[in-house]
Amino acid sequence: MSAPPRRSAHNRPALITLVIVAALACLALGWWQWERFESASGTGQNLGYALQWPLFAGFAVFAYFRFVRLEREGDEPADAAPTRTRMRQAAPREIPAGILPDRPTAARSDDPVLAEYNRYLAELHADDIDVQVRKAGLDARDTERSAG
User: Fold this and answer.
1) From the CB of residue 27, how many other CB atoms can be counted at a distance below 10 Å?
2) Which of 16, 59, 107, 135 is at 20 to 30 A from 126, Cα to Cα?
3) Which positions ≥6 away from 66 have C-beta within 8 Å?
4) Is the CB of residue 66 less than 8 Å from the CB of residue 96?
5) Is-contact 55 72, C-beta < 8 A?
6) Residue 111 to residues 107, 118, 123: CA-CA distances in angstroms?
7) SS3 at position 46
8) How sure is the predictor about 77, in pLDDT bands with cuts at 50, 70 and 90?
9) What is d(CA 119, CA 140) in angstroms, rounded to the nearest whole number?
């Protein structure tokens, strides 16, 4: 079985076109907001948008290059991976004792009234299960299966 062919940046014309169109659209919107800011009705909000749109264009380009790099790292064989990547794939380490707070524990109660109430609830639950078993046409006490 042969490995899938490596895809170079030249094999991604649709993605490259998308990034270029997105970056140009963001830059055009930034230019438009700058023109609005310089007009008589321009406000500080227009200036903020004029500075924000080029950042969006830069992010589109950054995201593309990050995508290409992550895709290339995924295609590399494990022995060719850099040492830093191998370190990330190591088993997780234990958390040292004393860093996390202790979990609270429920206080044990020797209250006889509470114990009697819990026994009562357990009996009600057992009776409810018996009723559901009988409704389903099963007999919990009968362990043999009938063949007919």
Assistant:
1) 15
2) 107
3) none
4) no
5) no
6) 12, 11, 19
7) helix
8) low
9) 21
